[in-house]
Amino acid sequence: MPFGKASSGVAPGAFLPCSNCRKTIFAAEFEANLRVCPYCGHHHRLTWQQRVDVVFDEGSFVELDTDLRSGDPLHFPDYAEKHAQAMQRTKMRDSVVSGRATLMGMPVSTAISDFHFMGGSMGSVAGEKITRAIERGAHEGIPAIVFCASGGARMQEGLLSLMQMAKTTAAVEACRSAGVPYIAVFTDPTMAGVLASYASIADVIVSEPRALIGFAGARVSKQAQVSKVPDDFQTAEFLLSHGMLDKIIERKNLRTNLASLCRLLGGHLAAVEATRG
Amino acid sequence: MPFGKASSGVAPGAFLPCSNCRKTIFAAEFEANLRVCPYCGHHHRLTWQQRVDVVFDEGSFVELDTDLRSGDPLHFPDYAEKHAQAMQRTKMRDSVVSGRATLMGMPVSTAISDFHFMGGSMGSVAGEKITRAIERGAHEGIPAIVFCASGGARMQEGLLSLMQMAKTTAAVEACRSAGVPYIAVFTDPTMAGVLASYASIADVIVSEPRALIGFAGARVSKQAQVSKVPDDFQTAEFLLSHGMLDKIIERKNLRTNLASLCRLLGGHLAAVEATRG
Amino acid sequence: MAKSWKDWEKPVLELDETIRKLQAIVDKETDPERKTELSERVQDYMRRRDAYLETRYSRLGPWEKVLIARAETRPYTLDYINALCEDFVELEGDRRFAADHAIVGGPALMDGRRVMVVGHQKGRNIQERSYRNFGMAKPEGYRKAIRLFEMAERFRMPVITFVDTPAADPGVESESRGISEAIAAAMLSMFELTVPTVSTVIGEGGSGGAIGIAVANHVMMQEHAVYSVIPPEGCAAILWRAAEKGAQAAAALQLTSDSALKFGLVEEVLPEPFGGAHRDPLEAAQTVGRAIMASLERQDKLSGAELKAERAARFRRMGAYAESAVAAVLAES
Amino acid sequence: MAKSWKDWEKPVLELDETIRKLQAIVDKETDPERKTELSERVQDYMRRRDAYLETRYSRLGPWEKVLIARAETRPYTLDYINALCEDFVELEGDRRFAADHAIVGGPALMDGRRVMVVGHQKGRNIQERSYRNFGMAKPEGYRKAIRLFEMAERFRMPVITFVDTPAADPGVESESRGISEAIAAAMLSMFELTVPTVSTVIGEGGSGGAIGIAVANHVMMQEHAVYSVIPPEGCAAILWRAAEKGAQAAAALQLTSDSALKFGLVEEVLPEPFGGAHRDPLEAAQTVGRAIMASLERQDKLSGAELKAERAARFRRMGAYAESAVAAVLAES
Ligand SMILES: [Zn+2]
Ligand SMILES: [Zn+2]
Questions:
Q1: Nearest residue of chain D to residue C139 (CA atoms)
Q2: CA distance to A10, D201, D273, per residue, from D75 (Å)
Q3: Which residues are within 8 A (CB) of D68 and not within 5 positions of it... i.e. 6 or more apart?
Q4: d(CA A217, CA B111)
Q5: CB contacts, 8 Å: A266 with chain D
């Protein structure tokens, strides 16, 4: 089983091929390198827990909104089973984990999508958690940082999932009105309904290198197009050159770069003002 | 002397060629047709007085700011002479005439550029008149309508002319803050420093057909470009298709269309509120 | 699985034609007796047609509603604007890149009120469809909408939107110019408004492309309109690798107006004329117009801050989930 | 007419080289007497060089200032940012069309203060120049600037801009995407700010491309910078159909810092180090930094509304005209 395909169950002494360049590497070295291939630089997907470890101060993350449970409002074919399987496999309750943490000492509110749970798709629970994480930033005056990893809206919850796009956008509006920094980090992949809502309207948007980012599945875009599709279409690099991103940041620099941004945008001040007000 | 080259001195019984299609037409018919060629539809340039006649309610225009006189702050070579000649030839004091009028009964504030005065260029006096016209709209709560016909900033007043771009923009900001409609009408030509300031940030921008509109002289743009230049480059039609204009309006419909816009945007209400406040 | 609304409408269209011809004969007939007899036949045909329509339209399935929502005879945004507005000045510019003809908009006078109207626009024939890009807006369409929303805010005009799009344009160009950002920014812009807002889904409410201009205080769907997170064919392609199972997916997605109402995602379902909006566009428009005006009247009583808060709260409560420690334990046991 | 600042700087550059070589010899010399003698020669060369520079730079004509303002060794925006800011995160996106490298910007820490820095950026070598489009920004550059201005407003950060552009990009693409609108909108955006603003012309203040990001409460020019309504060559081409008469046009346009100060169009002229900013970029940066901080300190005492009003009033009073009925009669008689 190549790296980047699963998140656990590999003995640290094992060595396995990179799913991108196929070169073989020790599991321990891979983990030490934050799951970035030392040969090809490919940033393999992280679980939410690994993301927490990479970015936040050790032991500072406190999960919130843990009692939220998904329903099956449409009794959509196979949804209940798929959801139960995903819960069992990932030990998560839905595709997003939200909470508080500190980033180089600064308190922040965060929501982290995990692609391993039903492709990180956004249904009612994911939408609610993201909304609360951004609102928490607005209300407490601490920067909100969201980590995106999602195929888009969860179709099994139908129109309810589409409405999560608007709901999360309302939270962003609240954060803007409060003058609190809101930062989005795009990771592989950030697609469709997630990209077309809270993700794309952050004050600052950064991405990990070579992440897949797009509105439509590449198949759909290419079908719809007579003209030539660029080689780097729907990659972070493509988006950067088209003005949609502010910066591409390697995983190892994410922590310090995000801390810089929070400090420069006054994330440390907003909390003080929120307590005052 | 073809039509569109001069604004007066032609006997009504005369007939002359259209400067665009070269077809011959009676002066009286030409004037009756608002100086639009009945053959090719070319909208020939108007003097400010003709513009007033075409758009506003008969006899409603009252000129203001008539005491403003240009200086020659840089003692720029030949400027004083050129300016004096233009004054003599056009009977204007500078390239812009400003004032109040009514448009199908609605009071409006207006500034009209006249290309016949030094190419409609914007120096200190033109900038001041445009600024006052827009400010008057803001303060009195009546729509501000500017008619553009200019080659750009007047280089003979140096940096002072460049600053008119910022000054007129400040007036637009005042109009926006006041919630008063501000409409720009582009006529042939609307260029450079005028286009890149108050003209392009109107709430609504309309243009006469086939007007020349651009930032750089076509010569400069084409020099700077390796790729192919579109046939309709820098025409009103080009700008419309590129999202820079809201509508192209034939001269004969300008009056009713502008009145519609003023009414729909609440121009008739703003005045009432301004008196209240 | 029907491919077009005409599949079941054919008998009706044929009856319509027969009635039309017969009526022409009636009109010319001079013999009073014969005239009466023929008239009765016309009446009879009409009764039969209406009976068919009544039965048929009262039991339309989700997929059939999809087909009706897509019908090329269904009234489009500009039809509603023309029917409901005394004055309308279309403003084309996005001030950024291009005029997008898949979204139209501008200030208008509706029932004597100044309003800002914005809506997706489809085309009826081949040229029109291409000109309107099949009602699929590009980033510039949404950016034009934002400009108009901001203008409405500045001049204190209610915002009225009409939703009717299969989806936002998914092409390479749209991606290059940030279709996702444009949709998200359009929603954000609507959340910022302090003027009344009403959105009506008049045909296809196609996922992100639809919600981009549907963030209103009051959202309505016409009886036979559909509103969906994904086109049913796309859903079927993903789930069952079979786009032709669209009807099945349409049922699973519950994309009809009654479902949306049931889940509290729209405030109101607007009844359509007998046999669908396309059989009587004027009546359809009047129903829509009355509902818009009624909502504006209600919203007029709220302050700008209240309107903004109500709109945010409206979307804030959407979602189907449980939250309690007990539910959590139960779900995991 | 000189074509480059090197035309008169050549003797200086040669002397620099001689001094450098001689100093290397001095450093290695072990004989104390010989070392002293050589040292004195170095000192003598330096005195002569400085005397030349002093005379030369105290009587630079307008055209020579144009050439210095364009010098490829002159410090650019990023040089000032690097010298003056402890932390700077460049943000590239315009969220519309493209990343424009002719304008750079982002939040930074300057003298311990959070500020938003935006400036034109030129390149030094051929690749850099092409990457930076010669410092000529396209619409996306100005739209990125607007985004950063709005962010500064949201997070209460002063806006610091550096102006250094021959002109906005005049190509067909820029026209297509609305370069005029972008410049005007950038000015409008600066007028809307309620945070302190400082702009410094550090090289070429080239017409619309410059003023687009120079709408500040406090505008400064470096001693040898130029600020003009039109490039002198363009002016000469229009007036005398001879672009090569740039020097003549430069004089007529009065595009130097002392003229701008005289006409009240800038608040402050910042002295440059001996022989120009390029001879001591660090000292030049420190002078700029101190002036920025002094202005921010003054502006800190004003409220947001006062800052906005002051900025509007600053530009409102610009212009040279007479106004009185008497003047009118006299002018016409
Ligand atoms: Zn690899
Ligand atoms: Zn003609």
A1: D96
A2: 54, 12, 12
A3: D5, D60, D74, D224, D276, D278
A4: 52
A5: 114, 155-157
Q: Do C99 and B242 touch (CB under 8 A)?
A: yes
pLDDT tens per residue across span C202-249: 999 999 999 999 999 999 999 999 999 999 999 999 888 887 889 999
For residue range A16-67, list pLDDT tens digits in order: 889 999 999 998 889 999 999 999 999 999 999 999 999 999 999 999 999 9
CA of D44 to the centre of ligand 2 (A): 76
Q: Are residues A31 and A161 in the same domain?
A: no
Q: Do B261 and C90 touch (CB under 8 A)?
A: no
Ligand closest to B210 (CA) is 2
Distance from CA of C323 to the nearest CA of D (A): 34
Complex ipTM tops 0.90: yes
- Whether D91 sits inside 8 A of A181 (CB atoms) is no
A245: nearest CA in chain D?
Answer: D93
D chain contacts of residue C178, beta-carbon cutoff 8 Å: 95-97
Residues with Cβ within 8 Å of D84's Cβ and at least 6 positions away in sequence, in order, are D110, D111, D285, D288, D289, D292
CATH code, A67: 3.90.226.10
Average pLDDT of the residues in C170-192: 97
Are B23 and B139 contained in the same domain?
no
Tokens 């939270």, residue located:
A171
Range of the structural domain that residue B128 is part of: 45-273
Question: C99, B263: Cβ pair inside 8 Å?
Answer: no
For residues A64 and A25, state if they share a domain.
no
Of D315, D316, D320, the CB nearest to B71: D320
Compare CB distances from A266 to D99, D144, D156 and report the shortest one's residue: D156
Strand partners, C103: C120
Question: By mean pLDDT, which of B13-27, B161-175, D174-188, D269-283 is the weakest?
Answer: B13-27
Q: Which ligand has the nearest atom to the CA of A29?
A: 1
Question: What is the Å distance from ligand 1's center to A30 Cα?
Answer: 10
Instruction: Closest CB to B243: pick one of C93, C114, C157.
Output: C93
Helices A124-140 and A267-276 pack at an angle, to 10 degrees, of: 70
- Residue showing tokens 């505008």: D219
Q: Report the C-alpha gap between A4 and D50 in whole angstroms.
A: 64
State whether B34 and B140 are in the same domain: no
Please tell me the pTM assigned to this model: 0.94
State the smallest CA–CA distance between residue C182 and chain D in angstroms.
8
Distance to chain B for D271, nearest Cα, Å: 21
> Which residue from D minimizes the CA distance to C143?
D96
Mean pLDDT of C44-66: 89
The whole-angstrom separation of Cα D191 and Cα D185 is 10
Q: How many domains does chain B have?
A: 2
CA dist list (Å): D283 to C13, D83, D95, D268, D271: 86, 10, 37, 17, 10
What residue of C is the nearest CA neighbor of A161?
A: C229
Looking at the fold, whether B37 and B143 belong to one and the same domain comes out as no
| A136 and A260 share one domain | yes
C92 touches chain D (CB under 8 A): no
* CA-wise closest residue to D220 among D283, D296, D153, D275: D296
The length of chain D, given as a count of residues: 333
What residues of D are in contact with residue C181 (Cβ under 8 Å)?
Answer: 95
Interchain contact D52–C (C-beta under 8 A): no
pLDDT tens per residue across all 333 residues of chain D = 788 888 888 888 888 999 999 999 988 888 889 889 989 998 999 898 888 888 888 888 999 999 999 999 999 999 999 999 999 999 999 999 999 999 999 999 999 999 999 999 999 999 999 999 999 999 999 999 999 999 999 999 999 999 999 999 999 999 999 999 999 999 999 999 999 999 999 999 999 999 999 999 999 999 999 999 999 999 999 888 887 889 999 999 999 999 999 999 999 999 999 889 999 999 999 999 999 999 999 999 999 999 999 999 999 999 999 987 666 555 555
B6 and B99 in a single domain? The answer is no
Q: Are residues A151 and A67 in the same domain?
A: yes
